[in-house]
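Problem: given the chain below (243 residues), write out its structure.
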Amino acid sequence: MPHLNGELQPSNVKATAVYDIASYATDLFLPLTDVGLTETALTFSGVTMTRDTSDSNQPLDSFPRVYSDTDSGLLLNEGNDTAFNQTYTLDPDMTAVIYKFSLNFCAVLTCSAYTNGGLNIGGLHIKISERSSNDRLLYENTFQSGAATLAATGTSMHWFTQDIVETIKVRKGNPIDIQLNLITVVTGTNTRQEGYAPVAPYLKTAVLKSFYETGISLHLHPDLSHADGVFKYKKERVSLLGQ
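Solution.
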């Protein structure tokens, strides 16, 4: 055999790494959930619905969805006349690079008692930061809604569908905080509840339609130190060279 007669030493046998791009990048969807917030019932057919129309390139079929003809939904909020401001945490189990955040957030503003003035879902503020010995601000921005102003009791619903194209490195063991708060514009005397619908449609008519989850999709690439599933070695070539 070659490795016995000196023609080929085992130490000289080299493996060829095979790059498998299908195993390298992934879209990770993070549905937003909250425990302990006030739950307010929604009737979708009775809302004033708007949405962003041209600011995201994320295909709709990449978000989790179901089909139903239900007209009932849920608004998660922090109580009467309280601004919505919540922080969600991602705990990376490996170092990775995020190239895009795709936001799919269904903001809801309800006026349950009205005397005068107006209420509007003005915008959504997002702040992404890394918790470590030296905290890092990774991204911050406010997206405007363009939603209609409520001038009576009723409900306004706006889908924020935005792409955040930023190159952000996350590190194993350093939590990533994603803070979301609504910038509502309120004047006059009224009672409101503001927050988001965890699951909601893009169309309000009570017929069979698709419902989408509120959440954030991350397009990420694992660091090459986490490469077991990325570089697949041709083990049969290694064994043949040694025979």
